[in-house]
HalOD1 output domain-containing protein (Halobacterium litoreum), 100 residues
Amino acid sequence: MVRDRGTDDATVERFVTERAFGDNRTPTEAVVDAISDATGQAPTDVGPLSAVLDPDALDAILGPDGPTPTARISFTVDSCAVTAHADGRIVVLPQGGENA
């Protein structure tokens, strides 16, 4: 967990992780695991990504055969702002709670 000071001097917590994508792990699976880690939920309790984006498109854009190694996708799911990068870095910013 990383703590940042926002522009309004409020402390903001964000969860930053790196997840390897590869033959046995898709970007979608890595994102679900990162949200799970950041929120303390079981991966099976994380809201369906398909409600906010196409998981196949996420895998195609961020996967090893994606269009560019600098690609990134940002979206909100389960009250978390998520940015996933093609290099495997995933940033999860939980919304709500005491640090919203």
DSSP finds two helices and five strands in the chain. The mean pLDDT is 81. The longest strand covers residues 11-18. Strands lie at 2-5, 11-18, 72-77, 80-85, 89-94.
